[in-house]
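Shipment paperwork, digital attachment
Item: protein structure file
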Amino acid sequence: MHKRTLLILVLVAELVCLVVATAATNPATVTYTIDASRSKFMAHAGRSGLLWFKGHGHHLAASDFTGRVELTPQTVTPASLRLVVKAESLHETGADFTDQQKKIINKELREIVLHPDQYPEIVFQSTGVTAKQARAGGYEVKLIGDLTLHGITRRVEIPATVTLNGDELRAVGKFSIDRDDFKVKATSAFHGMVRVDDTIKFEFDIVGRRS
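Attachment content:
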């Protein structure tokens, strides 16, 4: 065999070995699809002033959301999260309100606060993820990314705890925003039932299944 041909074959073999070794040390990411039926995404807004309904805080739950998590086995990172919540699906669940009051609140949420006809989705897209193993098991994760709410996008940081069990993933976390940053109103229109503090707190408990 010609020496040049032999050299090329050796180089090709070395390249294949390098690719195999790299794949072994850097496994491909795994995708998990969020199961909304087993997950929770909520927004909590503290009371602002004393109104005729005693200034109770709001506890809004989303009934329609989708998402996808990509992560690397054993190390979590590199990883990414995309979560899309249908704004119209947010509804009042607070036990302090009557059914009639909840109807009024939900009407104000749609027509004055969230404007889902104009801004149908609340979207979080991660741009960076860090992770470390937690003492109690699982991983302590910090997600940095872009939150789009009411047509405005801001950078946010979200801490979460991630656990993996077979083909399932669970991520639990909380974060807060200033509603003024997203031009979300606290309105006194109609019955004045959506009056909240500047800080809105979000919490999530999402379950994803490997796809």
